[in-house]
Structures are given as structure tokens and as C-alpha cells.
Amino acid sequence: MLLLEYLDTVSTDYTALIVIDKSKPSVQRQPWRKMLRVLAFVQRHKRQENVARSGHSLSGIIVITRTFKLRLFLFRVRSLSMDRLTGWLWRYRRRVLFGFLSLLVVDGAALIVPLVIRGAIDRLASGEGGVLTSGLYIVGLAAVVMLFRFLWRYFLIGSARQIERDLRSKLYQHLLRLSASFYNEHKTGDLMAHATNDIDAVSRACGFGVLTIADPIFMIPVAIGIMLSIDPRLTLYAIIPLPILTVFMLGFGKVIHRRFEVVQEAFSGLMEKVRENVAGIRVVKSFVQEEGTERDFAATNSTFIDKNMALVRMWGLFEPLIELLGGATMAIVLWAGGISVISGSISLGDFVAFSQYLMMLTWPMISLGWAVNIIQRGRASLERINRLLAAEPEIVDSPHPQATHGSKIEIKNLTFSYPSRDGNAPALSNIDLKIEEGTTLGLVGLTGSGKSTLVRMIPRVFDPPPGCVHLGGEDVHDLSLAVLRGMIGFVPQDPFLFSASIAENIAFGNPGANTDQVQQAARLAGIHDEIIAFPEGYETRVGERGIALSGGQKQRVAIARALLLVPQILIFDDPLSAVDAEREAFILSNLREFFRGRTAIIIAHRLSAVMHADRIVVLDKGQIVERGTHAELLARGGIYRSIWDLQQAEREVNGEPA
User: Fold this and answer.
1) Would you state the CATH architecture of domain 496-566?
2) DSSP 235-265
3) pTM summary value
């Protein structure tokens, strides 16, 4: 047991391989050093060793050597892990405990009130006094209930909100770790539903759900115990519905769990539909498809409502059933209890107190129904969240990061295929390329030739095969991702701007940059004069995805953002496609001095953007078909020369200078 508990605290994220040599008593007497050594080995080699994950518990293998015979034992540790509601509650166990104790005080005070009333009624029936004293007792108990009701809400509901915060943060941090391929397979609306609706359901289960379980656990046994002390026969009549209720609860719980999962899936689809239509509203309006999208949304919305109604119908049967059973019980008690009072078996005060306890049992019984509903919803939502959290990033850090030595880039025999293109031609095939430190490479080719795929291999946006891409003499797999990507300033063709000011967007990668540095980067990118022409200058809000700026302005803000990093390597993926040729030439002339001493890769549609590069490579269908300087490629008369002649003819037609 000690071994399993130790394993649970040390390695909760990965399956561990524990080796115990039974032939060496010293190892068995002192297992900690051995276990630490093996666990460290597993952590170092978890990528290469195909370490498995368990959805609901930690799994492991013990290899025992006994007289040179190996025995394999598979064990499973059922722990309070964070993939269960109990695990999250355990994190805040002190607050939950204080809330639970406060709830017990509230319930205890409430249970005393009928006894006080019984005493007052019996004294009145016998002609004694003391009613005022009983009234003061009740007022005092009400004050206790008020105070401790605030405390249980503060601790229990407060804990639920903190769990909600932690779970949302954990999910967000996990999403940031995941590779780009994950987002190709998961819709944004679905992820948003997980981060909002599902987490809210978990929070309700950890807050109000705990209340709806804890209250009946204490209230029902104590109330029934007091009722038994008053009249056992009458109590027997009162608890007849409880077994029936238990059977219904078990059945309803499973059905509610399944149906709520279906509801959450439908909500994810609804969220994605709204997000997609809002993001593409300009396309919708351009093609006059408002009515079509409205019909499509109405169908999705109706599906969501239908799934919800299936859940509501099931839940709607439960509470009325409880009330029916409670009403039937009360009728039986009134009949049997009335006879007992008339016959003198119990006093009038006993009967009133018994009736109050019976009515007090109605809430715990309803509470149990709510508990089934709320906790099953929370469990279903947590299972959905755990499926996201179980997704591992395909691109991970090296267990032993190496230091880089310069910015020389070397690509050796690189062949790469997208996972979604099984059976099709690879996106890149047999790429061999060297980019010396401090030189500029121009990368050109027709659309779909693999240019963007190739440059994304360097920062491991797409993961190249091991041994194919080297930076500073080291395989990129052996470099820390933070160090690798921190060396590179990457400007995509379709830049993303955040809904913030222009200055904040430029300083995104370097938040500590001062105003002068931000403006200098903007000058190099050829956007400074246009920014200061705005009424609010650099504080102009760009709107969602930079909607307030033109395509060319967005591209130049993205260039300024990359330049402000002062990176060792610059990768421009056709970032000037939305500006005219004259402005492109002006920007490139600004950047030539900045490029000096830095390794740069420029992908361009216009060959004029790469004509001054130290070397130019032409890609076609994922292969390098030409390489050389601008003059050499023109003299060779291949694809490069054909594109050049076509662009020059286009310039002449448009009246642009050659």
C-alpha cells in the first residue's frame, strides 16, 4: 500500500514502470531510492517509451525478479485524481469541511425547533406557562440558522467557484499546449462550450450538488431517529416510500447522465454554428444568404431544444413523483396519528412535532432528486472536459534540451505528409537545403508547392521527422520549444491581430518594449505614417481580428510585431501580398539593413521581393526544382524565368515601372 500511495503522489500523470529486485533484500528494505531512480527514468523517456494514460485512474506495471523469473503484475490505483468530482472537492477539502459543518449546525438547529414547539404545546395543554421562553428559544435558533447558513453558502458555493476558476485555467493552459493539428480536428464552438457550459455544470455539482447530498445524509437519519422515539409504528408508515424512491433515483440517474451528454454535444454544435456565422457575416451578406443561414440556425436550434426537452421530460417526472409520495405519506400519518392522539398513545405535542419532522423530510427527498440531476450533469460535463484534457500535444519539448550554436539552418532529406492525406503524394519530398547564418533565402513556387509547409517545419509548427531539420547544428527536436520559437520572428500571409490597440499588437511578443521601440519597428514595416494619421494614433483599437485595418495594414503591423522581437531568424510567408509593388519595394529596402547579420527566409508571390536574396529556391509539387541567384535562375530559363516574364508583362500592361 505504501508503494502505491507513493507512486500516486509522485507520478499522477504518466504510467510508471517500477522494478523491484526480490533477490536483493537491501532494495526491498530501502525502496525509495530505487523508486525515485526508476520514476525519473520514466519521466525522461516518456516520449520514447510510449507511456500510456488511464482515463480514470493511474495504471502501472510492477516487474518482480524472483530467482531469475519475471512476473508481470498489472495494478490500478483508484485515487482522488482530478478526473473526478471528488478530486476537485478534495483540493478544497478544508473549505468544504467548514461548509459541511456549518450545514450540520443549520440542520441541527432546524431539527430542535419541533421539539421546542412540542414542549410548548404540551405545557399549554396541561395549563402550564413558559410559552415566552419557548418563543425566545425559537428566535435564538433562527439567529443560529441565519449565521451558519451564510457560512455554509460562503464555504461551499465559494469552493465551487474556486474549482470553476481552477478547472477553467487548467483547460485554458492545456489548450495552449496542444499542437496545431488538434485545432484542425476540433471546432472552436465546441471548445467554447467546454469552457463555459460544461465548466458551469461541474461548478454546480461541486457546490449545490454537495449541498443536495450532504443535507439528506444528516437530515433524514436524525429526523427518522427522532420520529422513531416519538412513535415507531407511525414512523414505519412514514418511511414506506423511501425504498420506492431509491429505486427511481438509481434509474433516473443513469438516464439523466446519458441525456445530458447528448444535450451538451448539441450545445457545442449550436455554439459553433453561431461562431461560424458571426465570423463569416460579411460573406453571408455578400451572397445574400441571411435567410438561408437563419433556416440553418433554426434547424440546429430546434435540435438543441429537442435534446433538452428529452432531458426535461425525464427530470420533470421525478419531482412530482416525490411530491406524490410525500402527499400520500402525509395522508397516512394524519389518519394513523390522529387515531393515536385520540387514543392517548401520543400527546398532541408529539403529533405536531412528528408532522413537522415529516414535512422537514420532504426537502431532503426533493434534494436527493436534485442531487441526481445536478451531479449526473456535472459528471457528464467533467467527462467531456477530461476527454479534452487527455489529448496530448503531438509536439513536445526535448527531455534534454541542447543549446544552439548560431542560426544556420540545414534541412536533410526531408519528406513530410499531412496525417489527413494518407495515400496521397507527400507535401514535401526529399528536400535538402542549407541556409548559412546571416544570409537571405528567397522561396518561390506556384500555389500548393509546399512553401509554407517547409518554413513551418523550422519552428515546429508542423513536426518534421527526427534528424531532418537542424538549427545551429542541432536537431530541432533536441531544442527547447521556447528557445527555438523565441529565435524566430514569423510573419504569416494571413496575420492575426488581437482586439486591442495597434501598439499592443505590435508589442505582443515583447510587452516590455517602450514607445520608441514600437514606433521604430513600425517605421521599418512602412506603417508608421499611416498609424499616426489615425485620430488616436498607436492607441487606435483594431477591432476583432483587425477589422478596422486594411489587409495591407494588417500585414505590416504583423511585420512590425516580428521585427520588435529582434530575432536571429526571420521568416516572411508572403506578408506583402496585400500591398502594391511600389510600397513593397519601399518596405524591403527598409528591411535590408535589418536583415544584415540575420538569417532570413522570404516567401513571395512577386519575384521582385526576392530578387536581392543571396539565394533563391524554387519549389514545385513539394520538391526543389531550381536553386541559384536571381541572375542564374533567369539565365537558366526554367519555372523562375517563366514566372518572371509573366510578372514583367503584367507590370507593363498595368503601366508599372519594371
Assistant:
1) 3-Layer(aba) Sandwich (3.40)
2) HHHHTTHHHHHHHHHHHHHHHHHHHHHHHHH
3) 0.69
